[in-house]
């Protein structure tokens, strides 16, 4: 536990003491001017980490070391506070929130996490009691489901990183700590929204960790960084960084939001995804990979060095082909997981219907929402007696539900994919890549053999709101 400060303790306001806004809808009207630039995903990230430059950030800090950006700009502090604040909780509790799923109420006691969650729905009066009397931290899961501006930020960041971006809000009363020292499997961006938070960071015991874990005080040693985060400040640290944070005395409460990304986005994760298809493709042309393995190997009766050499030779040959560009890297599961679970475009209601005129052969067209679509080459899902046919899937997130973002799957994956994408013959792959790489393209120039095939492709994309006529 952190040492208590001798600073004067101020009377802590309860949740109900805050000035309550009218009952919120899912669309918040922002009165505070944003210091962030939403013109593009790149511009959004640049403005998020300013005055640090993007190139410097990724060369010196990303996956390497923490970064604290101190800001004394009142406009930035005011905007950060508008993202989420203590006074938002009473109205949010009317959204049928549940403990564990939506909210955790916790406090670090003697280096252990103590949970104050109750059965049933979350009530403002109950969490207020835990906040005031038990000095518990309120952890709000995935607030972008309810707060429009966080949806707007995280949707752009998902386009920038090419991976899921989640968030959690932590509201901690003074002289209290919510969680014990631990490390995460995510890259963390902390935005301080209200008050101040005292952060202590420690050298990782597992650099770039692939899982969450609590660390004991005996193992973590002395802090490498001792930071007082103030409203408007940003703190970044890589996955695996051991950390703990507390609200100091003299501060009514602290509110911060953590933006998290790059969970299971390593080279190892990519290899796990692409290796089955690489090996399958190689086996079609290399008869040695189709030869039977030694009798009794699965029973442990054929363990010798020759088995290891044979497997190593096959892997070495596959690696050589991959390095020389003779094998194509085709991610499937990672792409599907990302596009199925990510946020839809910000304010996407008007996007669900096709836009503009129906494309014709003489038209110039372009793809819409390139950042919200992926292509995969996979076996056809149709069951036939013939050899497995490879097809192209165009998957998109335009119809994703913001309310379920980062909350786990709720329906059958295949059913989701059918409702969120299109299937084309493998012969359409080059034409789809033409559209993906071009700013604009004449329908007649698509690399398909017939006019009917060209029109069929663009009509299918137009019907899914993925293409527009210029």
Task: Give a written overview of the molecule.
There is one protein chain. The protein is an alpha+beta fold. 28% of the residues lie in helices and 22% in strands. An eight-stranded antiparallel β-sheet has the order 1-12-8-14-5-4-2-3. A four-stranded antiparallel β-sheet has the order 6-13-9-11, with no helix packed on it. A three-stranded antiparallel β-sheet has the order 19-15-20. Helix 1 packs across helix 6. The longest helix has 19 residues, at 267-285. The radius of gyration is 26 Å and the shape is globular. The protein starts with 40 loop residues before the first helix and ends with a strand.
What order do the helices and strands come in, and which of them pair?
Blueprint: H1 41-48, H2 54-60, E1 67-69, H3 74-83, H4 89-92, E2 103-109, E3 112-115, H5 124-133, E4 137-141, H6 148-161, E5 165-173, E6 176-177, E7 182-183, E8 187-194, E9 196-202, E10 213-214, H7 217-220, E11 225-230, E12 234-237, E13 242-247, E14 253-261, H8 267-285, H9 305-323, H10 333-341, E15 364-367, E16 373-379, E17 390-396, H11 413-419, E18 421-425, H12 429-437, E19 441-442, H13 451-463, E20 467-469
Antiparallel strand pairs: 1-12, 2-3, 2-4, 4-5, 5-14, 6-13, 7-10, 8-12, 8-14, 9-11, 9-13, 15-19, 15-20, 16-17, 17-18
Helix pairs in contact: 1-6
């Amino acid at each position: 536990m952190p040492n208590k400060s001798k600073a004067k303790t101020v009377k802590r306001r309860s949740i109900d003491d805050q000035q309550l806004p009218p009952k919120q809808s899912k669309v918040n009207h922002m009165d505070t001017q944003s210091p962030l630039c939403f013109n593009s995903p790149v511009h959004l990230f640049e403005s998020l980490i300013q005055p640090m430059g993007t190139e410097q950030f990724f060369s010196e800090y990303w996956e390497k070391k923490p970064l604290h950006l101190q800001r004394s700009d009142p406009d930035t502090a005011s905007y950060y506070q508008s993202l989420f604040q203590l006074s938002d909780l009473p109205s949010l509790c009317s959204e049928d929130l549940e403990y564990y799923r939506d909210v955790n109420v916790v406090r670090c006691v003697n280096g252990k996490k103590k949970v104050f969650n109750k059965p049933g729905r979350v009530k403002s009066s109950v969490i207020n009691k835990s906040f005031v009397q038990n000095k518990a931290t309120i952890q709000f899961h995935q607030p972008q489901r309810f707060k429009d501006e966080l949806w707007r930020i995280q949707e752009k960041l998902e386009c920038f990183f090419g991976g899921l971006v989640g968030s959690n809000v932590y509201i901690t009363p003074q002289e209290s700590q919510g969680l014990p020292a631990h490390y995460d499997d995510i890259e963390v961006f902390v935005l301080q929204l209200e008050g101040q938070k005292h952060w202590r960071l420690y050298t990782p015991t597992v650099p770039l960790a692939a899982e969450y874990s609590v660390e004991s005080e005996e193992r973590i040693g002395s802090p490498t960084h001792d930071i007082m985060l103030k409203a408007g400040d940003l703190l970044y640290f890589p996955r695996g960084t051991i950390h703990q944070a507390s609200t100091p005395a003299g501060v009514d409460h602290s509110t911060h939001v953590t933006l998290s990304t790059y969970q299971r986005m390593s080279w190892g994760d990519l290899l796990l995804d692409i290796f089955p298809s690489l090996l399958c493709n190689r086996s079609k042309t290399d008869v040695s990979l189709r030869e039977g393995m030694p009798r009794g190997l699965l029973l442990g009766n054929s363990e010798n060095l020759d088995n290891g050499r044979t497997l190593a030779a096959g892997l070495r040959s596959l690696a050589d082909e991959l390095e020389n560009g003779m094998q194509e890297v085709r991610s499937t599961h990672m792409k599907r997981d990302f596009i199925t679970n990510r946020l839809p475009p910000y304010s996407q209601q008007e996007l669900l219907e096709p836009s503009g005129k129906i494309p014709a052969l003489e038209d110039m067209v372009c793809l819409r929402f390139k950042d919200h679509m992926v292509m995969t080459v996979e076996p056809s899902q149709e069951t036939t007696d013939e050899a497995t046919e490879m097809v192209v899937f165009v998957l998109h997130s335009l119809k994703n539900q913001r309310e379920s973002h980062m909350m786990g799957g709720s329906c059958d994956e295949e059913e989701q994919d059918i409702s969120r994408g299109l299937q084309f013959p493998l012969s359409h792959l080059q034409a789809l890549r033409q559209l993906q790489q071009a700013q604009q393209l004449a329908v007649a120039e698509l690399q398909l053999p017939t006019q009917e095939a060209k029109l069929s492709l663009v009509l299918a994309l137009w019907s899914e709101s993925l293409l527009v006529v210029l």
